[in-house]
Amino acid sequence: MSSNSFAYNEQSGGGEATELGQEATSTISPSGAFGLFSSDMKKNEDLKQMLESNKDSAKLDAMKRIVGMIAKGKNASELFPAVVKNVASKNIEIKKLVYVYLVRYAEEQQDLALLSISTFQRALKDPNQLIRASALRVLSSIRVPIIVPIMMLAIKEASADLSPYVRKNAAHAIQKLYSLDPEQKEMLIEIIEKLLKDKSTLVAGSVVMAFEEVCPDRIDLIHKNYRKLCNLLVDVEEWGQVVIIHMLTRYARTQFVSPWRQGDVLEDNEKDFYDSDEEQKEKADKRKRPYAMDPDHRLLIRNTKPLLQSRNAAVVMAVAQLYWHIAPKSEAGIISKSLVRLLRSSREVQYIVLQNIATMSIQRKGMFEPYLKSFYVRSTDATMIKILKLEILTNLANEANISTLLREFQTYVKSQDKQFAAATIQTIGRCATSITEVSDTCLNGLVCLLSNRDEIVVAESVVVIKKLLQMQPMQHGEIIKHMAKLLDSITVPVARASILWLIGENCERVPKIAPDVLRKTAKSFTSEDDLVKLQILNLGAKLYLTNSKQTKLLTQYILNLGKYDQNYDIRDRTRFIRQLIVPNEKSGALSKYAKKIFLAQKPAPLLESPFKDRDHFQLGTLSHTLNTKATGYLELSNWPEVAPDPSVRNVEVIELAKEWTPAGKAKKENPDKKFYSESEEEEDSSESSSDSESESGSESGEDEEDDRSGDSAEDSGESGSEPEAGKGRAATRSRARGRGDSKDVDKEKENSKTSESSSGESSSIEESSSDSESESESESESESRKVTKEKEKKTKQERNPLTKDVSLLDLDDFNLVSTPVALPTPALSPSLIADLEGLNLSATSSVISVSTPVFVPGKTHVLLHRMSGKGLAAHYFFPRQPCIFGDKMVSVQITLNNTTDQKIENIHVGGKKLPMGMQMHVFNPIESLEPAGSITVSMGIDFCDSTQTASFQLCTKDDCFSVNIQPPVGELLLPVAMSEKDFKKEQGMLSGMNETSTTIIAAPQNFASSVILQKIVNVANVGVVPSGQDNIHRYEELKFQAL
Question: Where is composition skewed (Polar residues) in this entry (predicted)?
Answer without folding.
Answer: 1-11
